[in-house]
Write a structure and sequence with these properties.
Layout lengths: L5 E7 L3 E6 L2 E2 H7 L18 E6 L6 H6 L2 H5 L2 E3 L4 E2 L3 E4 L26 E6 L12 H6 L11 E2 L1 H17 L3 E6 L2 E7 L7 E7 L3 E8 L5 E8 L9 H10 L3 H24 L6 E8 L1 H8 L19 E4 H4 L8 E4 L9 H10 L7 E6 L5 E6 L2 E5 L22 E7 L4 E5 L7 E2 L1 H14 L14 H4 L3 H4 L2 E3 L5 E7 L5 E5 H24 L9 E5 H5 L3 H6 L11 E5 L1 H11 L1 H13 L1 E2 L8 H8 L9
Helix pairs in contact: 10-17, 10-18, 14-19, 17-18
Length: 624
């Protein structure tokens, strides 16, 4: 390829310049350059949210862009990244480049008491002498650091063995003790000096939208630091089906998806180590929890069987391996344990949630719900466990909503009614950037209460009878777009950008809400239980941590219960990873949980369609 076959691409606001082949898709150029730009629908041109502004070299708009963009947008050079082709030099302002305040990523959850007894152990001691009268090889001398009962069982890794001569010479010369690290009966590290205090593990939660990691002291179980980041796989789409579809279309994408999530995990580990000033070599164990699809992608296992009946996937039980198998940036022989999936889309994150909430030990009826893209539900009754997942989609995290956003600074997360109008409130009281999942809950609850929206989800037109009875300021929120379709005005920033909810947005939310409500009601029915039999209702995940319980009950996302029965357990996935990191018995418990939990496939039940249709209404949940 000659220089004339390339075009120059300038990306703003970073000022970065790329040279790319002429005719390249903008989306491909951004992805190959490692630039984290999000395509909520996976780049299939249905959401209209991957907007960029061409300040030079704008291509002619495609029909898909004309459908999503206003005439004024197109005139200003606004295009969709998934549609744009680079045929000439261009300067593009990518306002959608991922920037996310990690303080809004949920990295904490309920704390579970665990006896600290990790599978990796450390010992420290001085080497015995080696003389002509009592000759000992280097390996025998290092073995004396261990309790005598271990001498015959322990063997070194080849890396440890090769390092012994220089280690022993240095220890003798400096008159220092030697610290050794054992994983089972394998010595994975021997080093000069007393480094017993440097004994660390990482608990990693690998979610569809975000990753979070905690640095755990394996001597006492105390969390020393935590960090989070967006899942870089979002460039393939906000939902898991988009990522699975990408692999179906191009099997080579599996390696790319795997590489990006491992790269993100290593970035978090490096950040934790820098913060605490520790050597990654002293991270001696890792535990990982994630949903079924993310578990497959983390392990570089083809997840495409999850995209078609019977949705079984390639793996179910826990997976033990070593860090070097995944190129994790810790000690190469550090044990890595990936928590077991239960089946279908009910993954290791739910096994972790069951573990840390001790559902197996609870008396009465408990319900655990993770309100996210998969909408997993677990019902526990006196030691019996039944679970399912629902295709809720990403709307609870702002996905597939035209003005949707993650729960970051500027996200509308709350609505109040002042008697005349709805008032939007944003995170950190910043300028509005869109509406997040908890904001959607509050909006729909308020909108139905004040008559701005019907329980069936239909948006009234500005000249309708429903609009005429509203207070003037509230009625003024009802508008129509250029095609005459009704929409609801939410908020406006100081630059004049206006945020709306469309009828399609409302339907998307209703589908998600209906899926979760259906899952809760049908799993309860599967166990012969009614909604009023629930003794405790546990909400896991980032979305639940911001949830207004009463509003969620008002629109039927949660069943109507005494609020005292509702508990938020936070990031139970990461907490479950912490538990198995610290105690091998907890690993046995989580494996038992995965095998004892009965999986229910909702779509095979004859009442599913009727239950789902009723659940889409924005009113309190009812028995079928």
């Amino acid at each position: 390829m000659t220089p004339s076959d390339e075009v120059r691409l300038i990306l703003q606001p970073e000022g970065r310049t790329l040279r790319v082949p002429a005719g390249s898709a903008l989306a491909d150029a951004l992805r190959e350059a490692g630039i984290p730009f999000a395509y909520p629908c996976g780049g299939v041109r249905v959401c209209g949210r991957c907007r960029v502004e061409f300040r030079e070299g704008a291509p002619a708009p495609l029909p898909d862009e004309e459908r999503h963009l206003s005439r004024d947008d197109i005139r200003r050079g606004v295009r969709l990244a998934c549609c744009s082709t680079l045929d000439t030099d261009a300067e593009v302002y990518c306002g959608g480049l991922e920037s996310f305040h990690t303080e809004h990523i949920l990295t904490q959850g309920v704390r579970t008491d665990v006896v600290v007894a990790p599978e990796v152990t450390r010992y420290c001691g001085f080497l015995p002498p080696s003389t002509l009268d009592a000759s000992r090889c280097d390996w025998e001398r290092v073995l004396h650091v261990l309790p005598e009962e271990l001498w015959t069982d322990v063997h070194p890794t080849v890396e440890t063995l090769r390092a012994l001569p220089s280690l022993v010479a240095r220890a003798e010369h400096q008159r220092q003790p030697v610290t050794v690290t054992l994983h089972g009966n394998r010595m994975i590290l021997a080093e000069c000096g007393d480094t017993l205090a440097e004994h660390w593990g990482v608990a990693l939660d690998v979610g569809t939208t975000t990753l979070s990691a905690a640095l755990i002291n394996l001597n006492d179980g105390v969390e020393a630091a935590r960090a989070g980041c967006l899942n870089p796989q979002r460039v393939w789409g906000e939902d898991l089906i988009s990522r699975i579809r990408a692999i179906l279309d191009n099997p080579g994408e599996l390696e790319a998806l795997h590489h990006r999530v491992i790269e993100a995990a290593n970035g978090l580990i490096a950040r934790l180590c820098r913060e605490r000033r520790i050597e990654p070599l002293h991270v001696n164990a890792v535990a990982v929890a994630g949903n079924t699809a993310m578990t497959h992608l983390f392990l570089r296992v083809d997840p495409t069987s999850l995209g078609q009946a019977p949705f079984a996937g390639a793996l179910r039980g826990g997976v033990p391996l070593e860090a070097r198998d995944l190129t994790l940036a810790v000690h190469p022989h550090a044990p890595v344990y990936v928590l077991p999936c239960i089946g279908g889309f009910v993954g290791g994150d739910i096994s972790a949630g069951i573990l840390v909430t001790r559902l197996l030990d609870q008396k009465g009826v408990s319900v655990l719900v993770d309100i996210g893209t998969n909408g997993e539900v677990v019902v526990a009754r006196d030691g019996q466990l039944c679970s399912t997942s629902s295709a809720a989609g990403p709307s609870f995290e702002g996905g597939k909503i035209s003005a949707g956003t993650l729960a970051a600074t500027g996200a509308i997360h709350q609505f109040t009614f002042d008697g005349q109008d709805l008032v939007a409130h944003t995170l950190d009281r910043a300028e509005p950037t869109g509406i997040c999942g908890s904001g959607l809950i509050e909006f729909f609850a308020r909108a139905v209460e004040v008559g701005l929206l019907g329980a069936n989800g239909r948006i009234p037109k500005p000249d309708s009878a429903e609009a005429r009875v509203l207070p003037p300021r509230l009625a003024a929120r009802l508008e129509v777009d250029e095609s005459g379709a009704p929409q609801i005005f939410l908020a406006q920033d100081t630059k004049g950008q206006r945020f709306y909810l469309t009828q399609a947005d409302v339907r998307e939310f209703q589908l998600a809400k209906g899926a979760v409500q259906t899952a809760i009601c049908m799993v309860l029915k599967e166990m012969g239980l009614a909604l009023n039999r629930i003794d405790r209702f546990l909400v896991a995940g980032a979305f639940g941590s911001h949830l207004n319980v009463r509003d969620a009950m008002t629109i039927g996302l949660l069943p109507e219960l005494d609020p005292e029965k509702v508990f938020f357990v936070g990031n139970s996935s990461q907490e479950g990873a912490r538990c198995v990191l610290l105690n091998a018995y907890e690993r046995q418990r989580v494996e038992q949980i995965a095998t004892r939990t009965r999986l229910v496939e909702l779509a095979t039940r004859p009442e599913f369609q009727e239950r789902f249709a009723l659940s889409m209404f924005l009113n309190p949940a009812m028995e079928l």
